[in-house]
Amino acid sequence: MKDNYRKACKEVFICLKYVDEDLLHLIPIELYTMIVSNMNKDYYFNYDNKKKIYEQDLLEETVNLLGYIFYNYWANESEKEKFKKVVIDNSKTKLNNKNV
Questions:
Q1: Alpha carbons within 13 A on the beta-carbon side of 39
Q2: Residue 39 contacts by C-beta under 8 Å, 6 or more apart in sequence?
Q3: Over the stretch 84-96, which tens digit does the pLDDT of each residue have?
């Protein structure tokens, strides 16, 4: 688990290299520093800039960290409501799949 977290930090770090600079500046320096200091520097992640972010082969932990950043620092109120709905729907689907 901890290894995946460190890999996720590296994946987030790489993904953020492709984010518009204006959005990057909205992330608190403390969070960015935490990502950099916790990432597995030896882990290789190949970001394909010809693909959309949702087409990348990302760890679940990476998706969660990027979702946290999106929701807390980039999303407007309308996007936050859509995001909440997707998270709730995904949680229900996971619970239903576990009960099958």
A1: 21
A2: 6, 7, 9, 10, 12, 13
A3: 888 888 777 766 6
Q: Give the DSSP per-residue string, 13-75.
A: HHHHTTS-HHHHTTS-HHHHHHHHHHS-TT------TTS-GGGS---HHHHHHHHHHIIIII-
Q: Do 15 and 66 contact (CB within 8 A), yes or no?
A: yes
The residue to which tokens 């929701």 are assigned: 71
Q: How far apart are CA 76 and CA 30, in angstroms?
A: 22
Q: What is the pLDDT of residues 50-73, one digit of tens each?
A: 999 999 999 999 999 999 999 999
CA pair distance 98, 100, nearest whole angstrom: 6
28 Ramachandran zone, left/alpha/beta (phi>0; psi -120 to 50): beta
Q: Measuring CA to CA, how many Å separate 46 from each of 11, 43, 74, 76?
A: 9, 10, 24, 30
